[in-house]
């Protein structure tokens, strides 16, 4: 992939690294390297295009939440935290590993070239084609138990991208989600979406307990930026 292919006369760039099919485990680490190279090449093209004023890099909340110390941290996870690549590799969290590596590559190049870049670290996108095969869902049970299993609706994600691009005060990383899966009802609703063919075998809502898991992840930074945002 040649970065020159991406050089265009434009004032801004919204960058979403590619989503790949992780069906073959032998390809996963290789594809992480491909995603890193893709991020590097697009950022390189942006750096060489004088008319680009700001880059919005679409990353993932999985580039934040997977750390060895996540269960013992006193503070909630937020944009200041990064997933541990070695931890991700150890537990085969390939989606989180690739998103973390690609985003770190993008930030390194942006800082080296003095580019104005912000990143959106999105939760699980609740799209119409969401299925159990979505790579974000690797480790879903652990994210649920840790209070960091977050989702985002498409309209909110789009608004967040527009907001951070247009607002001159935006900077750094932004965790982006508008719902957290932290009750059994939440988990059951998601399970029905992910496995519609098995919906009849899932427990009914009245059979679920009332357990509530404390939220341990914060999107206050984005919420503050979007207070006065009008779509």
TrEMBL record:
<feature type="domain" description="3-beta hydroxysteroid dehydrogenase/isomerase">
    <location>
        <begin position="17"/>
        <end position="105"/>
    </location>
</feature>
<dbReference type="GO" id="GO:0016616">
    <property type="term" value="F:oxidoreductase activity, acting on the CH-OH group of donors, NAD or NADP as acceptor"/>
</dbReference>
<keyword id="KW-0560">Oxidoreductase</keyword>
<protein>
    <recommendedName>
        <fullName>3-beta hydroxysteroid dehydrogenase/isomerase domain-containing protein</fullName>
    </recommendedName>
</protein>
<dbReference type="Pfam" id="PF01073">
    <property type="entry name" value="3Beta_HSD"/>
</dbReference>
<dbReference type="GO" id="GO:0006694">
    <property type="term" value="P:steroid biosynthetic process"/>
</dbReference>
<dbReference type="InterPro" id="IPR036291">
    <property type="entry name" value="NAD(P)-bd_dom_sf"/>
</dbReference>
<keyword id="KW-0521">NADP</keyword>
<dbReference type="InterPro" id="IPR002225">
    <property type="entry name" value="3Beta_OHSteriod_DH/Estase"/>
</dbReference>
<dbReference type="InterPro" id="IPR050425">
    <property type="entry name" value="NAD(P)_dehydrat-like"/>
</dbReference>
């Amino acid at each position: 992939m040649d970065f020159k292919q991406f050089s265009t006369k434009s004032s801004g760039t919204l960058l979403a690294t590619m989503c790949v099919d992780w069906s073959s485990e032998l390809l996963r680490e290789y594809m992480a390297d491909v995603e890193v190279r893709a991020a590097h090449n697009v950022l390189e093209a942006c750096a060489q295009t004088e008319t680009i004023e700001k880059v919005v890099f679409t990353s993932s909340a999985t580039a934040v939440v997977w750390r060895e110390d996540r269960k013992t941290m006193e503070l909630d996870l937020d944009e200041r935290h990064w997933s541990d690549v070695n931890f991700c590799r150890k537990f085969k969290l390939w989606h989180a590993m690739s998103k973390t590596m690609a985003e770190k590559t993008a930030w390194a190049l942006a800082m080296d070239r003095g580019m104005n870049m912000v990143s959106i670290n999105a939760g699980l996108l609740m799209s119409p084609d969401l299925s159990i095969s979505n790579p974000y869902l690797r480790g879903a049970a652990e994210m649920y138990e840790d209070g960091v299993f977050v989702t985002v609706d498409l309209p909110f994600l789009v608004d967040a991208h527009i907001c951070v691009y247009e607002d001159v005060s935006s900077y750094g990383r932004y965790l982006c989600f508008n719902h957290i899966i932290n009750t059994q009802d939440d988990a059951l609703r998601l399970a029905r979406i992910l496995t519609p063919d098995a919906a009849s075998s899932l427990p009914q809502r009245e059979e679920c307990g009332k357990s509530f898991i404390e939220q341990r992840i914060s999107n206050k930074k984005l919420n503050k930026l979007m207070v006065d945002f009008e779509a």
